[in-house]
Each structure stands twice: as structure tokens, then as C-alpha cells.
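During the reporting period the student researcher (J.K.) took over the structure-prediction task from the postdoctoral fellow and processed the backlog of single-chain submissions. One of the processed entries is reproduced below for the supervisory committee.
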Amino acid sequence: MNKVIVIGGGPAGLLAAGHAAEQGNQVTLIEKNLNPGKKLLITGKGRCNITNYSSGKDHIDHIPDNGKFLYSAYARFSPYDLYGFFSEYGLKLKVERGDRVFPASDRSLDVLKILLKYLKDNNVNVRQNTVQKIINNNNSVQGVKLADGTFLKANNVILAAGGSSYPSTGSDGSGIKLAEELGHRIVQIRPGLVPLKTAERWVKDLVGLRLRNVEISVYNSEEEIVYHDFGEMDFLPDGVGGPIILSASMYLENLAENSYYLEINLKPALSDEQLDNRILRDFKKYSRKNFSNVLGDLLPIKLIPIIINLSGIDPKKTVNQITATERSYLLKLLRKLPLTLIGAGPFEQAIVTRGGVAIEEIEPATMESKLINGLFFAGEVIDVAALTGGYNLQIAFSTGFLAGDNCT
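J.K. obtained the following C-alpha cells:
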């Protein structure tokens, strides 16, 4: 019987182990934590955005880091296949805005329970330990050496030990080191899907404020647009976060060396004419009030003092005294609230790891190493990373399934 060892009990490793066992292999999953799935439990703020209910091509369009490498993985195990897998195992799912798929219970634990049942149903042996080394002889996998000195023999090893995001869950980059020790080239790892730091300190006065249905545009120093999106964002003590900001971070390189700035359109649903008419209507309604007291119908309370200060309009000026030029600048500010980007969050704030095992050294149709026979890769250890919306978990599941499928 073919013996398979899966390193890592995250989403990629869990599905890889279950599917490899389903093919008739004797499978052992090795996880350093007491229980598998620790990182899965905190995804989507504990709700677990399993996938995005859209085509594989649509997913690849949302994977800025080497998306085309995943065509075979998505052809073999698509987002629709994943939806069917969980549904057949009895997990009720729901599709929310943006085609994001969640368990109907909003509990990531329910997703993990299904995956653990999948392992149990297929007799996967789950073992808590740390893999110290993958044993290779004449460019063929022989097994693994554990931290306690034990040697486990295997015909195939699936390396699914994750990256370096959420280090508190055990994602410490050790899987990437195992691949490097075997001679694989590693693309420099760095945090992905992270908050962005700003030069403007007024953001700290907006901590806790979430803007919904806003539009952002990010420009480089040549004033070329590098990212544009619509959705939700948050203000943090030293910058901005939230879904559209995290996705924007994937398109910004070397923030310390390159200049980027962000513009927020606070009212994207209105044309310039409609927004101007809205401002005029409020000004007419509160014509005898001071400027500081007339924006409550238009903006969140926390944001009003910031907009007033940036507008340069005297807050004590009565509305009927505001000039057309001042009103025009106010409109521009609501359309293009500017922020200077000066840095990105660390791995402790990252949702995914960028970089990892170079895709040129992995066979895309099987996930097998081109250097070491019998060695397969799955999930975040590979140099692929996507935007928010369920795309990264689908990468884990699709690559895990494909790796497990080819252990023969």
C-alpha cells in the first residue's frame, strides 16, 4: 500500500490528506499544534469565507500572484466542486454579497468538523509532532524525520505547512524552510493582505469608523492608477484597513521606497452634479447655521471635523456665506479624500503570505516537485496569493485536492 505523509493540518493539508486516503493510500497527517485547523478557525473573523461562488477563471482573475499557475488545479477541483463537497457532507452554506460563500451557521468550527470527519471516514492517522526534515535519496522522497527523532517512511510527502501569516497559529514559515533545504528556490516571503499606514495622523481620530459603499483609487508617484475598488474600509490608529484596503495592498511594492497615495470617494453613487445639488439642498436647509453644524445629513459624525478642517472653510462661518469656490473644493474633498501611504502592516496583521516555493519548480498539473520525485506542495507554501473574498482558501483546497489526487 502506498504510504503518504501530509505535513500541516490547515485547509490544504486536511483536504489533501482526506483525498489521498480516499484514493486508497495509507495516510498520516502531521500537525505541530495539539489540534488541526487552528488557523482555519479564525479565518473570516471566525465565520470562514470558504470560497467564492464563481468560475475558476474568475478566481484566477483575483489572484495577482501567479494565478495562471492554478488553471489545472481549478479544472480538477473548482469552486463549484468545493461547494458540492461541503454540501454533500451536510454543511449548509450561504452565498453573500460578492458571491462569498460562508457556512449558514457563521461558524468556522462547523467547516473544520466536516474536514475532520472526512479524515476519519477515510482512516487518516493524525499525529501531533513537528517535521524536522524531509528525507530525500537520489532525488526521491523516502519519508520524514520528526522532532523526537522518529523516522516515518513514505512514498509521497505533501508539504502543506502554510506560510508566515498569523504566526500565533503555528504558521512560522517552517514549511518553506523544509522546501528550501531540499534545494527548492524560494521567492522572498512577505506579508500580504495587510492594512496600510498613512502619513496623515488624523486617521487616529477615526478609529472604529467603517465606511461602507465607498470607492478607492491608489496612484503611484507618476500619478498612474495602480488599484481601484468599491466596498468597505476601516480607520486604524496608524492608517487604514478593511477589505478593499487589504486587496489594494497586494498591488503596492516597496512602500518604503516608492510613493503611493490613496483617494477615497465618499459618495460614489452620486454624480458631481447630484452631489453638488445635495450639498446645496443641505446648505439651504441649514442656511443660518454655522458650517460646523450642517454636514450631519451627509457624513458620519466622526468624519465631520476632519472634512471641515481639510476644507479650509471657517467652521463658524454661516452656510449662506460660503462661496461657490469653497463649495466646489468641499465637493472635490468628498470625491477625493487624500491619504499618503507610507508603509504596510507586518506578518502579525497579514492574512496571507506572499512568496514561497517558486512555481517554476512545481508541476502545475499535479503539484509535484520538479526536483524531488514524490514531493508535492499545497496551499500557502507555494508562491501564489489572492485578494479577499474566499479566493485564498479555494487555492488551499484546490491545490490540496490536486496533490492528494496524484499520490500514487
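The committee noted the following: The chain has a mean pLDDT of 95.
J.K. will present the remaining backlog at the next meeting.
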